Amino acid sequence: MKPRSVFTRMLLWAWAVLAASLLALFLVTTFQTRDSIVLEAEERAARELETVKWLLVQHAPFPDTKSFHDWSTQLGHRMGLRLTFVADGQVLADSMVSYEELDALEDHSMRPEIRKATPSSIASSRRYSDTLDREMLYAATELPPVSGLPRGVLRLAVPFSELRGQLASVFDHALWTMSLALAASGILLLMGTRNVGRSVHAFSEMARDIGNGDFSQRIREVPGREFQPLAEAINAMARRIGRHVDTIEEQGGRLRAMFQGMGEGVLVLDQRGRIDSFNRALERLLPEVAKALAKTPLEAGLPLEVQDAVERMLHQEHGATDDTDTPGERLRILLNDTRHLAVTILSFTGHRGGRKLILVFRDVTAEVEHEHALREFVANASHQLRTPLTSIKGYAETLMDAPPSDPEATARFLGIIQRNADHMDGVLASMLKLARSDRAATSSRNTKVSAREILSAAITDMEPRADSAGMRLSVLLPEDDMMVHAESEGLLHVFHNLLANAVNYGHSGADIEVSARSLPEGWSFAVRDHGPGIPAGLEDKVFERFFRGDPNAIDDRGGAGLGLAICRQIVENYGGRIHAERPEDGKGARFVFTLPHA
């Protein structure tokens, strides 16, 4: 059994849809027309009521209610409507009721339009009137005491039967219009479907010629015999395209994964030098780029030198930078004064022949910092080791070339050599400790530790040294555990260093005062000695690397000038701060550092 012609189905469905549409249009139009007529009647009644109200306000005072009733009756007959005046629920005038029958009318105070009427608005309602035996449209407004009348409500009524006649006429015209439109549309659809049938075969031939179209679906069912050639052509085309689409999607997926998975930030610019796309790595380096699509690199927050390089690349002669062997342009920038980025700019030709650019950003901050640290390390090491090394070399040459005959002099020379060697060993150990502290600034993971326990361990370690120097550790601590965010090893090193400095520079017989107190921002720890103190203006410089009052002094107390620098690095790694100050009595020095509460 051959399937029914699809054009027959199209004709029936189209006619049914059109009929439903015309019916919906008929209903919508009818209801809208009805609402429009009713609304127009209400607005007209409101205008007429305002006119009557104005005439009544301008009228001379009425001597009695009967004269007002007679005036209302005449005005109502002339305007073709019903006028009613109600005061305290009683009808004082009605243009369609004789004056003698007014007392027989029921209380009107509960009528909807009467209850809702106000001096500044007009209330309306529609209902059946028992008095007039017909459906009426009412409009009412509150009237202040005017023209000798008490305060009351002026009401106007319009017969609704006239509106129903208009609605019936609109309904009849709309129904006839819909019927004629439906008949005419059926004829036109029939003629149109015949024309479509003749076009299907031509379309199927065209589909065979453009077999590389973008279709991924297959036609499994043929709705009508006219579509059989078209279905065969599209299926054949789809089979050929499927293989190409799969290959393209796989390659595109690989490229997208590589693009988004790259550790380097990648920025693609269009022919005008505007941002076309970027990967996640670049968004992490430069969050502003997410809001800078179709803008220039400068507007995305990149430095001016990048924008200048882009302009140079775009204005070069075509082909000058499109060779794959050409390295493009390379530069290094400082981003936000914190990150060093190496930028490589390459050009390529788009599918429409225009030149586009790819910018590759690599974060080299760590490399720059390591290079700087290495240069600083070498410079500082050579500076700090030069003096003791010269001393060692000099005394060693003296012992070799002209050894003293006095054994005590020889022993003294060897002691100097040993002391300088120990000093060199201390310098190297401190520099390595400082390097580890610098690295910990980016990798430390602070935990909750008890500063009381760590400080107690440091005091226990330093007490023998303080006793041998003739000093006493005076400790004043609260009863709390003093929990802070830090690392046990680093915090112990800070306490050791501050206590050791206090012993080294304190006076024999004086106390070393250790105290702690809680502040809103964290726990504050202080170590005070009674030594010579810090010269005015050098309170901050003592925390600089390799700073010493006498850079060439090497004695039993002198170090490499790195101890306080290490302390500052460790405390700042923990989110705290450290400073030196002169005590109130001007004796000695006090070192104070604060760590956050845990």
Which regions are unreliable across 5 or more consecutive residues at pLDDT < 50? 551-558
Q: Could you give the order of the helices and strands?
A: HHEEHEEEHHEEHHEEEHHEHEEHEEHEE
Spatial order of the strands in the main sheet? 2-1-5-4-3
Distance between the termini: 85 Å
Amount of beta strand: 15-25%
Helical segment count? 12
Describe the secondary-structure layout.
Elements: H1 6-58, H2 65-79, E1 82-87, E2 90-94, H3 112-116, E3 123-129, E4 134-143, E5 152-159, H4 161-209, H5 228-261, E6 265-269, E7 275-278, H6 280-285, H7 304-315, E8 329-335, E9 339-349, E10 355-363, H8 365-401, H9 407-443, E11 447-450, H10 451-468, E12 472-476, E13 483-486, H11 488-505, E14 511-519, E15 522-529, H12 563-573, E16 577-581, E17 589-595
Helix pairs in contact: 1-4, 4-5, 8-9, 9-12, 10-11, 11-12
Describe the structure.
This protein is α+β, with helices and mostly antiparallel strands and 598 residues long. The protein has twelve helices and 17 strands. Strands 2-1-5-4-3 form a five-stranded antiparallel sheet. It has a five-stranded antiparallel sheet with strand order 7-6-10-9-8, sandwiched between helices. The longest helix has 53 residues, at 6-58. It is elongated.
List keywords for this structure.
alpha+beta; five-stranded antiparallel sheet
Put the structure in a nutshell.
The chain has helices at residues 6-58, 65-79, 112-116, 161-209, 228-261, 280-285, 304-315, 365-401, 407-443, 451-468, 488-505, 563-573; strands at residues 82-87, 90-94, 123-129, 134-143, 152-159, 265-269, 275-278, 329-335, 339-349, 355-363, 447-450, 472-476, 483-486, 511-519, 522-529, 577-581, 589-595.
